[in-house]
Amino acid sequence: MPELPEVETLVRTLRDGLPTLIGRVVKQADIHWSGVLSGCSDDICKAGLEGSKFVSISRHGKYLVFEMRPQDPDAEQIFLIVHLRMTGRLYLLPETTACGRHTRLTLQLDGGLVLRFDDPRKFGRIRLVKNTAEVLSGLGQDALSVGFDYFRSTLSKRNRQIKPLLLDQSFIAGVGNIYADEAFFRARIHPLTSSDSLGKEDIMRLHHAIIAVLNEAVAAKGANIDGVFEEGGFIVAVYGRTAAACQVCGGQIQKIKVGQRGTHFCPVCQPLSDRPTRNITG
DNA sequence: CACTCTACCTGTGCGC
DNA sequence: TGCGCACAGGTAGAGT
User: Which of A6, A147, A205, A245 could form a disulfide bond with A2, CB atoms 3.0-4.6 angstroms apart?
Assistant: First the structure.
């Protein structure tokens, strides 16, 4: 499922790729399933999109942000905000490409292109807003650039299992289930560890691991996991590798539930203790 | 306020 | 072969 690196890859593809989405004008918006829209009706959405031009593309956490300039110069600026959730995909395609079985929205563009949103599980959502804060204000700092002092002070103040906290988008935006498991493995931290029991060394390792894992995955254009997300080249060490050999110690990767989420870790490399694990080296 | 739990969805893979 | 079922999980919103 798309997390920060996959969303960042999509931003770069649509913005810098050939063809680019930047500068394209929406000729017609076709909503194939109304449920994909959040907070506005089909008609309002169509009216807002049709005639508008894509001006810029960015993201915060896992949210894609498309800045749109309406045809009418007096009209208010609008932003198209897309969340892919688990199975959502966006494609910029030639207009001759047929809709798929799971196409939820098609934007017909000038230049012989279409922007198509496909989502088999119907979890993904699209919003049209005048101000990005309507959607993004509840999010924490973007995970790729989260500050260490903020990270450390939040962990110390909270008394919560570290994994659900890391997945809390109001704390840090962009980390999902896959990269959380990868970051804990690298930092040698058990996902059930209480956040306020981590020492400064642990927190430094975790902070570094999150940013390193995400940066590597961005460089690889996303993850490559059999049957889950195969577009990129980033190979996971623990996610979905239940019972496989740990690549560091040869121990067996375990799967448990943490906060209702499937969680993969190496019980040897990531021991659970009440004390900070700062004495573990290597 | 802080945290936890459930609903939302459907393709996949398994056991029988 | 085909049926039923558990499972996957990000987020909103309800519950504790």
Answer: A6
